[in-house]
Amino acid sequence: MILSVNPWLELGRTGAPGVNYAMGRSTGAAGMEGLVLSADPWQADWSGPESADDRRADEAGGESVQDGEAGGYHVSVMLDEVVAVLQPTPGRCFFDGTLGGGGHSEALLRAGATVIACDQDPEALAHARARLSRFGDRFTALHGNFSAMQAMLASVGVTQVDGIVLDLGVSSRQIDVAERGFSFQKDGPLDMRMNPGAPLSAATLVNEADEAELARIFWEYGEERASRRIARAIVEARAARRIERTLELARLVESVLPRGGAKHPATRVFQALRMAVNDEMLRLEEALGQTVGCLKPGGVLAIITFHSLEDRMVKQYLRRHSEKTIDRPEWPEARPNPERYFELLTKKPVAPSVSEQEANPRSRSAKLRAAIRV
Ligand SMILES: C[S@@+](CC[C@H](N)C(=O)[O-])C[C@H]1O[C@@H](n2cnc3c(N)ncnc32)[C@H](O)[C@@H]1O
After folding, report:
1. 62-86 per-position pLDDT tens digit
2. Atom number, ligand 1, closest to the C-alpha of residue 194
3. Which of 111, 286, 336, 357 lies 20 to 30 Å from 206, alpha-carbon distance?
4. Ligand 1: which of 40, 171, 278 to mutate, most ligand atoms within 8 Å of CB?
């Protein structure tokens, strides 16, 4: 499938062009129903003035949290836009690498497509399996990291799909449950693992990483200007007693960076720790490298990012692999790009509509980029 027109020109906010939402059955990936992997091979190591919604949005690194569909689990972002670029129809098969509450998968399934999905959070999988069980063998949910997408697809007998969607970051549910340790507003263990079976928790990092490493994490992943002062304060505090709770850390950061702006002072530190604990940038890089091999010619890659580091990585990857020619000062002329794998569907990232941003503050920092495998 090659889209001859830019779907954004046609995209209405209430529905996607050419997309049939009618429920339908198709010949799905046979034998995939109810597939549950008992082991966890993909985790091993393949590896103030603001509103409550705003604060919760900040906690998720710009992602907010609203009750809504999926029993308040998570409100999907840019659903219509994702469907418009992926163009699901009966017979087409998609990989959803961030299943979460199952909203994007559901939209694809409702259009008649087959979906193979993964999430590293077993709780999300359980929720989405229950929500989407009515689609029978058109829906397969796997526990794993999307950085192992090629191996996961192979495990269910699929080599290439018609589209891939990645909706990065954490779900509303993960932020809302204090015990998961993502929230600087709710007292819970300093955990932040999307996959509770992963070895590194935020508490381990906060209590065991050296000062320079902590400062690097806060600076690199949180763009926190007071990174070194905060790292110093942590090292001093933990010399007396381990820092085990989210609110302990939030108060410690507040003691270094008093409240003043619209955001809670711990916003960037929590985002940075979450990214480090879940190795988010590396996982994304690994996943991007596999998209080429996992997409059929004409297949579409759609990625929603929520902060500038992720978006930059996606933008640069897609640019590098969509430019027709490459040039170097020492060459007499530009040469064809031997690694041209994509054609951009979105020259600039697509933002959620104003009405979506109003209805769901979490969506405000979202950016969708999409490209077709050539
Ligand atoms: C923003 S939510 C996705 C919401 C989903 N698209 C929906 O419509 O309900 C992100 C989900 O992706 C999962 N996740 C994030 N990074 C992941 C990774 N590297 N591998 C697998 N799952 C990941 C999180 O556990 C979370 O459940």
Report:
1. 433 333 344 689 999 999 999 999 9
2. 25
3. 286
4. 171
